[in-house]
Amino acid sequence: MAKLNKKQQALATKLGDNQKLYGVNEAIALLRDLKTTKFDETIEVAMNLGVDPRHADQMVRGMVSLPSGTGKTVRVAVFAKGDKAEAALAAGADKVGAEDLMEDMQNGNLDYDRVIATPDMMGVVGRLGKLLGPKGLMPNPKLGTVTPNVEQAVKDAKGGQIEFRVEKQGIIHAGIGKMSFSDDDLKTNFDAFVDAIVKAKPSGAKGKYVRKVTLSSSMGPGLKVDTTEIAGA
C-alpha cells in the first residue's frame, strides 16, 4: 500500500471516521478547512435516491432556482423571431436567431449551457435533435425552455436556475455554488436544491426516497450529510 504524503496524512487526520455524518453547515466549514487549491472550487451535492429511472414513473427531473446563484457564467441561445427575439437579447441572451442559429449549431457552434425556444420555433429546433439531445440542451416545455416568455426564461437561466436529472444508478448531482460564497449562501442554495428534489419525488418511488447525501468540493473529499436534517426525506 502506497504511503500517504504529508498533505494526505493531514487530510486523513482531519477527516477521521469516513462514515461520520455531518450537519450541512459543519460539512461546508470542513470543506473550506480542507481546501488545498488556489482556484475557486465548486461546491457539489450528490443525492442517492430510492428510484430506478429506467421506469417512467420513477424519473426525477426538473428545474430549480438557486437563490444565491451558481457563481458561473451561463451561456444561453434562444430560437425566436421579431419582438420575442428582441426581448431575449434585452434579457441577456448570448445568441438569438432562427434558421441562421440552426445552421450555426449544425456547423459545430454548440458552446451553450441552455437553449430556449418559442413554441413556433420547434419545427426548426427539431432538426437539431441529434445534436442537442445528447448534450441535454433540447428545449422542453416541461422544463420551461419552450415558452412564449423567452425574456423570463433567459433571466432565470442567467440568474441561477439549474436543471436536475437523475442518472441510471439513481444518483442526482449539481453544483450549488462556489467556495468563495458565504456559508449562508451555500446553505440557502443547498436547501433550495434538496427541497426541489424532495418535492419532485415520483409516484413510483418505493421505500426510503433520499438514501444518501454527500457534499464535496471540486478537488476535495465527499462528506456524508445527516439526512435527518432534510425535511420530507
- The SSE string, one letter per element, is HHEEEHEHEHHHEEHEE
Question: What is the terminal-to-terminal distance?
Answer: 39 Å
Structural class estimated from helices and strands? alpha/beta
Radius of gyration: 20 Å
Taking pLDDT < 50 over at least 5 consecutive residues as the criterion, the unreliable ranges are none
Bin the helical content: 25-40%
The overall strand count is 9
Number of helices: 8
Question: How much strand?
Answer: 15-25%
Shape: globular
Strand order, biggest sheet? 7-1-8-9
How many strands, which pairing sense, and closed or not: the largest β-sheet? 4 strands, antiparallel
The overall pLDDT average reads 89
Q: Any overview of this molecule?
A:
The chain has 233 residues and is of the alpha/beta class. The chain is built from 8 helices and 9 strands. The strands form 3 sheets. A 4-stranded antiparallel beta sheet has the order 7-1-8-9. The protein has a 3-stranded parallel beta sheet with strand order 4-3-5, with helices on both faces. Strands 2-6 form a two-stranded antiparallel ribbon. β3, α3 and β4 form a beta-alpha-beta unit. The longest helix has 17 residues. The mean pLDDT is 89.
